Amino acid sequence: MPLVRPELRRRARLIPHPPVQLRATRWLTSHGQTLFPIPRREGVELIRHGRTLVFRPRNPKGALLWLHGGGHIIGHPAQDGPLCANTAAEVGVTVVAPRYPLSPAHPFPAGLDAALETWAWMHTRADEFGEPFAIGGESAGGGLAAAACQRLYDEHGPLPRAQWLFCPMLDDRPTADRRRDLPRDRPVANNAQTRYAWASYLGQAPGLETVPEYAVPARRADLSGLPPAWLSTGDIELFYEEICAYTRRLRDAGVPAQLEIVEGAPHAIELWAFDVPVVKAMLASARAWLGEQL
């Protein structure tokens, strides 16, 4: 892994590449409350509301709807337990992390609909969770968060104060290029896996001329009017180009957008390398930005 920065190489080698096409793999990685024990953070109360985890600090100054990653096909909010608990403690916001329906059993728009149902539910508990609200997510969850902002804008719903997008999965079209399947040992996420994920979510091959509205955030023609955005990416990860392009388009549309690029970083470092100094610095910057918006 010559391109991976030295302090991340050992961990990157240890990350498995499960065959996500197998039903057993999807089942195992989507039952995360046993696979991912949730850490406790002093001053943060962990509350379970059905399929939703709530991380509530004392005297919250706002709330964040957080959507986990996993390519729309695997994942569980518990996998983001450290990120959610630490964000609640350090930013002083309630973090609401739902378990949304996954593909291929529940293709688009099931996950987005569930996210927006949670968003509406949060507004009924503003006195408990704190205001104002932001929305964020990681990988596929970051894509869902971006899509939710687009739909809320069009439907004149309550817009979030900010969108907080870690290595978001934004565009189906690059995965259609099978030349990107090499190298197959790309750390964390590769093109073949992502192509399967998009096909499962969309119910059609990725890269076709048309897709359902709000299914693919990067396909939206007009990004004006959306909330301020913070985005992150590693410069060797699969989504690097699409994240940079989306950031440029947000700025061109008049949306304040901050992009953090970590040199030599693969996908999702905020989850598996959060205690490495370069990642800690990125997370500190992300949380400072979020705190300024709320």
Automatic annotation (TrEMBL):
Alpha/beta hydrolase fold-3 domain mapped to chain residues: 64-269
Key words of the record: Hydrolase
GO MF term list: hydrolase activity
Superkingdom of origin: Bacteria
Claim: Hydrolase is one of the keywords in the record: yes
PANTHER family reported in the protein's UniProt record: AB HYDROLASE SUPERFAMILY PROTEIN C4A8.06C, ALPHA_BETA HYDROLASE FOLD-3 DOMAIN-CONTAINING PROTEIN-RELATED
Protein name (Swiss-Prot/TrEMBL): Alpha/beta hydrolase fold domain-containing protein
